[in-house]
Every structure is written in structure tokens, then in C-alpha cells.
Task: inverse folding
């Protein structure tokens, strides 16, 4: 998956302008770090990663900005099992494979399943996308 950071930043700028939100350097630093992580993350891990880069931003600012990024459709919130919210940059429909033992999360594409899911026509509902989560045990945990 190749992400165009410039187009994502432009979309976020439009969202902030339309909502009359302030365009702060902190918000864009959080956006860029979210994209750089290339994986699922929780807000605390995002905050720590930003701090480790030497850029100080409050935990509250990170939480508030993640909420804005989710509202803008840039980040997607997932809750896997009993875990806390995990975020990822919103992209095409995919399947999450989650190990119940170690918590590893892997994404896979399956166009066959995607076609079936998007052909469902629930009454009074128009699907725009999906995320499927399959729980099990990864090969590393199974071999132990």
C-alpha cells in the first residue's frame, strides 16, 4: 500500500478548514507520524513515538488530534477483542488476522471475500467499506 502523504495532508487541511479547526504544527506532526508508523497503533504508542523523535506534544493533543483524524476519515479505529482502540491509516477493505495469544495483527487482502461482502444489499443500508477480523493463533505461538 503506497500512501501519498501530500494528498493526505491536503485532505486534512480541507477538513480543518471546513470545520473551522486550527491548523497547528502539532496536528500535522501527529498526522505524519501516524502515516510513518505503517502499522496498527494505540494513542500512547503514537505519543511515545513522537516524543522519542524529540518533538514534545501533550498526550491530550495527541488524543484530540487522533479523534479529528478519525472524523476526517484519515484514521480508522479498530477494537480487537478486549484490547484498547488501535488505529491505522484508513485504506482499502482488508481482513485482520489477530493472534489471541501474542496479540500479533496481520492484514491480508482477499478480493474474493471483498466482492461477496460488497455485493450484500442490506435493507436500508448502503455499504461503503468493510473490515473483517479473524481471531486465532499465529504460527509462532502454535509452534511453541
Result:
Amino acid at each position: 500500500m503506497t500512501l501519498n502523504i501530500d494528498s493526505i495532508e491536503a485532505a486534512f487541511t480541507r477538513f480543518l478548514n471546513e470545520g473551522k479547526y486550527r491548523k497547528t504544527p502539532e496536528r500535522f506532526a501527529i498526522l505524519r507520524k501516524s502515516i510513518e508508523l505503517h502499522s496498527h497503533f494505540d494513542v500512547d504508542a503514537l505519543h511515545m513515538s513522537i516524543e522519542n523523535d524529540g518533538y514534545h506534544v501533550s498526550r491530550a493533543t495527541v488524543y484530540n488530534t487522533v479523534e479529528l483524524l478519525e472524523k476526517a476519515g484519515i484514521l480508522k479505529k479498530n477494537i480487537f477483542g478486549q484490547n484498547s482502540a488501535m488505529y491505522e491509516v484508513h485504506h482499502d477493505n482488508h481482513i485482520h488476522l489477530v493472534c489471541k495469544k501474542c496479540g500479533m495483527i496481520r492484514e491480508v487482502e482477499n478480493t474474493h471475500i471483498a466482492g461477496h461482502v460488497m455485493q450484500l444489499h442490506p435493507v436500508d443500508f448502503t455499504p461503503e467499506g468493510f473490515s473483517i477480523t479473524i481471531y486465532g493463533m499465529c504460527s509462532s505461538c502454535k509452534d511453541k
Observations:
- Strands lie at 75-79, 85-89, 94-99, 105-108, 131-136.
- The chain has six helices and five strands.
- The two ends are 32 Å apart (CA to CA).
- Residues 15 and 71 are 9 Å apart (CA to CA).
